[in-house]
Amino acid sequence: MEKILFTASTYSHLLNFHLPYLHSFAEQGRTLHAACGGVPAFVPYLAETIHLPLEKSMSSPKNFRAMAMLREKIRAEQYDLIVTHTSLAAFFTRLALAGLRERPPLINMVHGYLFDEQTPYIKRKLLLAAEQWMAPQTDLLLTMNRWDSELASRFRLGKRVVEIPGVGVDFSRFDRAQQPGFRAAHGIPEDAFVLLYAAEFSKRKSQPVLIRAMQALPDRAVLLLAGEGATRQTCEELVASLGLTGRVFFPGHQRDMIPWYAAADVAVTASRSEGLPFNVMEAMYAGLPVVASAVKGHTDLIEDGRTGLLYPYGDSGACAGQIQRLLDAPELRRSLAEAAKSNIGHYGLDEVFPQVMEQYLSMLPSGVPV
After folding, report:
1. CB of 266 within 8 A of CB of 194?
2. Strand pairing report for 3-8 and 31-36
3. Distance of alpha carbon 343 from alpha carbon 84, whole angstroms
4. In angstroms, what is the C-alpha Rg of the chain?
5. CB-CB neighbours of 361 under 10 Å
6. Residues 357, 370: contact at Cβ < 8 Å?
7. Residue 179: which pLDDT band, with cuts at 50, 70 and 90?
8. Distance CA 196, CA 242 (A)
9. How many Å separate Cα 197 from the centre of its chain?
10. Is the model's pLDDT at 57 over the cut of 90?
11. Does pTM surpass 0.90?
């Protein structure tokens, strides 16, 4: 029976985005292994899990130890296919293959290159060079937005490049009633104009842009920053220093975001770059107008003025201006939300799943369809 290895920088990545695919492969009788970094967690459908000592610093000796572990495991198991996700794991997984005479085919699913035309020149060149170096080990490259797809094709970053509409969002979870009294239960005033950003706290997600935008908005505007991460404490300190305590809430990581979408008036995002962000797609399906930074990934989902509002990345004043437009114009909020929901359906799991599985199966020796 065919054996497949999935690799990712964190276990949570597989849990959050890939369980339907693991489930399908397991039901087909294929043996699944996964090699992940980060905090260990149980991932269903796997016959074996390999913990990798990955660290975010590319030059960390631990990453090269992880690469050696992968190479040894790949030699021993003789996998029929490797599917790699996230930049760090993808690089060291492919580096492990580079030393093998015989190797299985590899699919690299790019959830968003961590650079674009606005990235500083030297950093952009280094990251692009790393992808070019690993291109010979990339038999199929799956991309999720126009910019990444065009870059990958222009520089031949994979032997075959295919753009997919993400990994699919399970919109069926949203078809349930709202929870009455949710705002009051979480200390949010019933008459507040609620802005919601659900994202990991990191430099790339740029929560400080939204915090500073709050200074230009009326007191009834409140901001919910749902998530955890390395920069949360810095953001909390910024809120206190700007006198915004009581208007910016930190509810932490939420496994179920649906009641939070229902409690919000507008979804906001300040990210520096994206692949095809779940938080934006979910908000659009939930009936929220979205105010987003004009970066790749966001611009694939949002047509400015029709399905959402965009502002230049990092410009807190422009961000506040777009939010103020929505605060002042209920009809604009409704029209944007309606257009967004009507245009987001084709990113649903029911439509995306067969497209992604078709690509996965095309690289297996048997090629058996779903």
Report:
1. yes
2. parallel
3. 30
4. 21
5. 17
6. yes
7. confident
8. 19
9. 13
10. no
11. yes
